[in-house]
Amino acid sequence: MPAVSFQEVSKTYDTPRGAFRALDDVSFDIGRGEFFGLLGPNGAGKTTLISILAGLNRASAGRVTVLGHDVVGDYAQARKQLGIVPQELVFDPFFSVRETLRIQSGYFGVKNNEAWIDELLEELGLADKAQANMRQLSGGMKRRVLVAQALVHRPPVIVLDEPTAGVDVELRQTLWQFVAKLNKQGHTVLLTTHYLEEAEALCHRIAMLKRGRIVALDRTANLLAGTASTMLRFKTDDSLPPALAAQARVTGRIVQLKAHDAAEVETLLAALRAAGVRVEELEIGRADLEDVFIEIMQGAEREAVVQGAMA
Ligand SMILES: Nc1ncnc2c1ncn2[C@@H]1O[C@H](COP(=O)(O)OP(=O)(O)OP(=O)(O)O)[C@@H](O)[C@H]1O
Ligand SMILES: [Mg+2]
Q: What counts of helices (H) and strands (E) characterise the chain?
């Protein structure tokens, strides 16, 4: 039995401008003990899928189960298996951190939870804020409380929707160490993030969602192997000739170009020289998940255009 199973899930929202299809026939399973990444651009449908899993939102079609429990028909059991860290910061400002965690324990019927609450506070760097009211915390600290809150009943399936948005480097590292430890102990993890290096480092498998459809799903290693494995990186103040600009990934002064082999590297360098582009700090490296992501998203874009033209 998988930890989570999405079966032909679709979601249509009624909007003033008509029906909007946020999820279109999404099917995949997450195995027990897996660390699974769900990636996609803003508005792809990640949070919609997670809110359906959490029972906060109803699918228009399809079925979702958590360890065999239907999230609609068997809501209470399904919810109990899940620890969900929501993307939006929601909390009651009048309670202290410790009270918040106690109330959440009570909600799941967990008694005598102080030892685990202390451990969570310690692991997430909140020990000295245990008595502070939620409204006295900084944004990053509130997010830590949300993580602790999700884990208070030791759920077998942990769902993290952008847990590191707005979080400092130190907490990111502590958070990932802690979540990786829980995963090693057998907890299943479903993660969405826009930090692709986090997904690359942590996830066994990754699904990519675009406009409500799965456009890629594979082991992280296979996704990385399936793309041009070499990237040419350099800095420049000059603008690239149009043919190269069209295929480059540019971040400020940093330019990255795909090259499948040494011959392509030579061709690219020759084209740069011919265009008079001054190249600084040249290096050749492996493609990373961000390169794969961009390639897959652009591919999906082209396909959508072709399908649109045929329709
Ligand atoms: N209640 C709603 N009513 C109408 N449209 C909605 C509603 N909730 C979400 N949407 C739309 O559904 C699409 C998917 O939204 P969703 O929040 O699932 O995206 P996401 O992948 O989580 O994006 P992000 O990376 O920005 O968090 C968006 O176009 C969004 O505007
Ligand atoms: Mg979202």
A: 11, 14
